Every structure is written in structure tokens, then in C-alpha cells.
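Collaborator request log, item 7. Partner lab (contact: R.S.) asked for a structural prediction of GDSL esterase lipase 7-like to inform their binding assays.
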Amino acid sequence: MANRGLVHALCFVIFFVISGKHDALELRFSNQSSVKAMYILGDSSVDCGGNTPFYNLIHHSLSLYPCNGSDSSLVPHLLAKKMNLSYAIPFYSQNGTIHDLLTGVNFGAAHATILYVGSRGYQSLNQQLRQTFETIQLLQLWLGQEFATEFIESSLFYLSLGKDDFIDYFHSNSSRISPRFSGQNFTHILVNQMTNAIRNLYANDARKIVCAGILPLGCAPRMLSMNVDRRGCASEVNMLVSEYNTRLEEKIVALNAELSGAHIIFCDVYRAIMEFVNNPQNYGVKDVHNACCGLGRHHGMTGCLSTDMACNQSSSYVWWDLYNPTPAVNSLLANSAWSGDPLAAICRPITVQELVSSSV
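Returned to partner:
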């Protein structure tokens, strides 16, 4: 009798696994997009705080609502809509089912950094990569190696990190990073870490990768609020951020030539934001210095602690809070990244739309 019970149990497990794989494959083939899913790694440019454990306890004077309280206003979400994809489920919200994994996962967390700083409660790039590779292993278990490889190669991986590393670096009074590195060494280390991340994703079958650069932090309300004598953007901040972006793009060009079948694009968020700051009248923008939601000089001394603090018309602002763009600016960024309109060649060497349609 015991043996018979064991056989029945094994049959049930086998049936469950086969049924799960069958349902997974049906879902896989039902998606008509040439990109099957989106997997996202990043900071507040991809997450509003809901994917950061205990975020409301550790945000301090930063923004409790860094992107208007809704991930739907962020660039990767807007791109997912253009690809007819369901938006990637936040890692800490999904329940680990194959259905959730196949619709994409957002591993990003507000205030995440490229480098690991042990005293902080925010997730680093390496932590997000570990979650990504564990997810890929689960896909391989459910789909089998062949189907999983095809699925991953047909998925898009979106990376957007580094902003908070530079924020830590320039806030030297509270940072353990800036005394250790010169500016050039710091950018070199960050670029190497991002390059290694792309290589590791490629080694795990990722072939379509979007890597977003860092926006001009020297023009952000928080940086402007820190110096009462400054007029315009902080050039020393922007110069270092620009150097990072240039080095990262050069590495991506080299990786495209080196890695067979890879389609990696760099999206120049810096140049796009500077266009909005320098020529606001062309984009319906009226305020390029102040945050829509915040307190203090330039609304940059304290972040967005309640959406009730927000301005009445965020679409007329470049900045939503201390460092993050408004939903209107994110929409312009997404449109430009997708098709090159209104800003051409923001994403290089090809647009996201061309990346989606490319074969692997």
C-alpha cells in the first residue's frame, strides 16, 4: 500500500510538471510580439519604491514617491506597452509561478546602486543579477534547456543604474565612496561593473539588451539646491556623469563587435534631458530648475513625501522630485528611444523598435 501511494504521488508530480510546461508553452506561443518578455534591472528609473523591502522606513529625506507613485509612468513600462507586453511583475510581488516568470520580472529597486554599500538597505546590481540568474534557472527547469534558451534570447533585458552611485559620491559628507576614489577611477569602476553585468547576461543567453545612461545630475533640483550661489547646472557633476556615459557607450560598441549575436544598445538619457533643459519651449516645458514635488530651494531639499505636495501640472516640469524626471519627460524619452521621435539617435546604434525586430 505504501508503494502504491508513492507511485500515485509521483504520477501527480509528473502530471503537474508536464501540465505546467504545457501551459507555459501555450503562453509562450500566444504572445505575438517578437520580444517575448522584458526583464528589468535598475533604480528609481524603473521602480517607484514598491520593489524595495522596507522602502518607507529607509528613504530618509529622499522621495517616498520618486515617480508619481506609479511604475506605469516609467520608461521601461512605456516601452513594454509599445511591444504589446504585459509590464514586468516586481520581483517581490510575483509568486514564483511559471506564468509570472514568463510575463517578465522587474528586479529593479528605487535607490539601487551599481556598487554594493553594506550599510544601505537598497539593492545592488549584483543582488539583482543574482535574482535574474535564479529566474533564468527556473525557466530552464520548467521549459527545458532548448525552449528556455530560445525564450531568453527572444526577451529584452533593460538596465538602468548608476544614478545613486554618483549621488553617494558627490554627497561626500555621508559617503564612504568618494574619499576612496578619484572621479576618473570611480567612473572606470562603474563602467567595468556594468560591462561585466552585460557579459554575464550574455553568458546566460540574453541577446537583446538595452542599457540606459545616467541623466545630467548636475541639473537636478537637489544639486541646484545645495549651492545658493550657483546659477545653472553644476558643471563638475555633469562632466563626471558625461564621462561615465561616454565610457559605457564605448564599451557597448566593443561588446557588440565581440559577442556573437548580441544586440546591445546604449540610450543617451543625458543628451535627451539636456535638450529639454536647454530648449524647453520646444517640448511644452516651462520649469527646468524646480521639482514638481518637494520642499525647499528648487523643491530640492526634501523629496516627495506625499503626492499632495506635487505641483498642479507636472507636464510643464522637467523634474518630478530631487533627481527623477516627470511622467511627461519619461514619455518623451520612451518615444525617442523607441522610434527616434522627437529626439533622433538617443539610442545607439539602433532604436529600441529596431532592436525588437532584430533576429538573434
